[in-house]
Amino acid sequence: MAKKISSLEDLGGFVFSTNKEFDFDRNADAEETLAPGEQLLEAHLDKKNRGGKTATVIKGFVGSADDLKALAKELKTLCGVGGSAKDNEIIIQGNFRDKIMDYLKNKGYKVKRVGG
């Protein structure tokens, strides 16, 4: 089965243009990462679309994709589990919401518990 292309990022992010005055700026979409004290993160527990397994989802991160991936790696290492980082969300396998919230608060982030 062929891989489905869902966005321009899947193609490498390049656009072909016949406009001779077109100026490709590679860093045009680069988002500046806010300081931890300025970020308000939400900690969710999620079971939907995961085969009944629980995942901890951290939403609300404002910053570059590289910084998001770095924070996700720290959290995955902290909990000793897998996960992913995409669409300004960090998904950690398992119920580690309290542990992650304590860690993020110690790093200076504002963290809000959402849901049960």
Automatic annotation (TrEMBL):
Record key words, sorted: Initiation factor, Protein biosynthesis, Translation regulation
Presence of the UniProt keyword Ligase in the record: no
Entries under PROSITE patterns matching the protein: SUI1
Superkingdom, taxonomy of origin: Bacteria
InterPro entries: DENR/SUI1_TIF, SUI1, SUI1_arc_bac, SUI1_dom_sf
An individual GO BP term: regulation of translation
Keyword set includes Protein biosynthesis: yes
SUI1 domain ranges (all copies): 48-108
SUPFAM superfamilies reported for this sequence: eIF1-like
A Gene Ontology molecular function term of the record: mRNA binding
Cross-referenced Pfam families: SUI1
Entry's family note: Belongs to the SUI1 family.
PANTHER family per record: DENSITY-REGULATED PROTEIN, DENSITY-REGULATED PROTEIN HOMOLOG
Protein name, as recorded: Translation initiation factor 1
Organism: Paenimyroides marinum
